[in-house]
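Milestone M4 deliverable, item 7.
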Amino acid sequence: MASTEPVHEHREDEEAVANEDEDTGAQVAPIVKLEAVPVSTGEEDEDTILDLKSKLYRFDKDGNQWKERGAGTVKLLKHKETSKVRLVMRQSKTLKICANHLVLPTMTVQEHAGNEKSCVWHATDYADGELKDELFCIRFASIDNCKAFMEKFQEVAESQGKKEENKDAAAAAGLLEKLSVEEKKTEDKAGEEVPVASEKETEDKAGEEVPVTSEKETKSDSEKTQKKDEEPASSS
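Output delivered:
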């Protein structure tokens, strides 16, 4: 008959280990106190006008294929002062930037062929720290989300175009106004350089240039002429 003593000893050892793992209720103060550090996302001066979960792809020209950039949240952010809008997408876990570019008036977004949940567009992206021309494709969980993204993207692009037109019109108006002011100053200056003489000054100047011969001077000249006539002619 086998002995049961080893079994009892094993149970006693397990109970001893279990007792060691029990919470005694003692509290140990941390040696180093850590303070919360504010983290800047770079989005503090912007308002979020669109926020959707999606998966982003970029077209690899060398491999002639689509490559995944990451899955996360795509946002359209409007700057509070300049009103410029940029598209930013970060990966959900690492928060690494997948896309980061301005939405310009020249941009257009189109539905991806054969997939109503996806759309494509061209952009000059800065996600990797340098400007690159990219062809993006983004896929959403539903058709509604895809349509909402496309409509908002196109709306922002058109609004940016109108702002550029208003800016150009304001600049042109300012230039015309500046030219009008300069032309007026030139006319005023020309008027100052050629003053109109008064009637009195004209009369005085005419009197100085054409003196009137007096009666006495006329009589004296007549007597001289008569005396000369009376002189005898010289003999031959």
